[in-house]
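Sample 1 of the test manifest.
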Amino acid sequence: MKDIVRQKIGINVDVMDLLNEQIAKEAHSAAAYLAMASWCDHNGLVYSADFFYKQSNEEREHMLKIFKFINENGGTAYSPEVSNINHEFNSLQEIFETALDQEIQISKSIHNIVTKCRKVMDYGTENFLQWFIQEQMEEENQFRRILEMFDLMGTDGLALKLIDERIKHGE
Amino acid sequence: MNLLYKTYYYSSYQCDQGRCFYVDFGHKRVKLSFCQLLALRQKVHNIDISSHFDKDLNYSGIEILTLCNREHLFVFDTLQIIDLKQLLKATFGILELNSLVVP
Ligand SMILES: [Fe+2]
Ligand SMILES: [Fe+2]
């Protein structure tokens, strides 16, 4: 019997499922950052708002990158449904902590797919995911640096304004 | 035509010449490209079988599935859905095994 599946698709089917789940996670991240941008806008933290609008865009780009990869290789990418977006925060610090936690979850999720790739010897997808591993390390570090500012400067009104300004320059 | 897997109600085949697949639904045999087979797999996978045992979630205990860009329309009951889930899981399992043995 011919291996028609392999003729049609360049990636492992189970890996494709995980990539589709990842698409949904990136879409969720994009929406979550948008909610954070909105909170910052409402609280007069314009530079942080700007920062999260940009983050949101980046997450959408991540999503598209995976989306196109699946389709280009003969699989089927599914447009994700996004739900459960939190809009309620107590402080800017809480937002950045939430953002870091979210990035850590995404890193773990990417690592999990890489592990699966190795198991089923899908080296093409593993190679594709290397970019995401690097990207996640940079994103995590970025949020760590910002949280360190809160440790150093505190969270009162003036510190908050200064941190907001710093976030503009940090970009 | 190679039989891939057979369940109580349904069976799946691979056609080497046509480079395509068939699913025999009993009263109807449907030709599927690999893409369409993937789509069927996804649709069946997304069905939450536990909703069939909850009157509020799925009162009638049926699922309506369209196939191949709505060229076909099927109505399944609970047992048929369980059977179909098994068929697709096993079919892709066999296909993966085949990938391992084809040099
Ligand atoms: Fe991302
Ligand atoms: Fe990110």
